[in-house]
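Give me structure tokens for this 175-residue protein.
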Amino acid sequence: MQRTYKTEPWSGRQSRRMSTDTTATATTAGTATAAAAEPVRFDTKIAVLLRDDLEPWQRLNVTSFLVSGLGSQIPEVIGEPYEDADGVGYLPMFRQPVMVFEASKEVLVAAHGRALTRALPRSVFTSDLFTTGNDRDNRAAVRAVATAELDVVGLAVYGPRNGVDKVVKGARMHP
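Here you go.
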């Protein structure tokens, strides 16, 4: 993970005396707070690519299934558990944003091929999975079709930003 460092706008800057220990401590605390507020830039990307002819409920369903595959197999994409102000705990989620794209069937087929060529971690959702009702049948439906013949309606990939960008080339951000 890389941090993008930016200076505060001029109006937010203040000159500080550094002649006393208390001022130095305040400056150090201010620097720590500023570092925590800096934008975080990840050197990796999580992308979901959906076929543009899916119904709204299918888009949500496919996205949910696809990202669960990444989260289960790539532990570094998962952040720390959450906790609210009352101490109630919540499950950890991805540590970085998930970019969701849409594309035509042709662009999705090309993206699938590029993901395979680049050997990026990926999960796939085919049209056959809309007719199954459980994980066992889902796996059997994918296993029954040759790679080149898969009717891919969704694809999730994870990897270096530039590699993922090349995989989703030709797709547009989901509205």
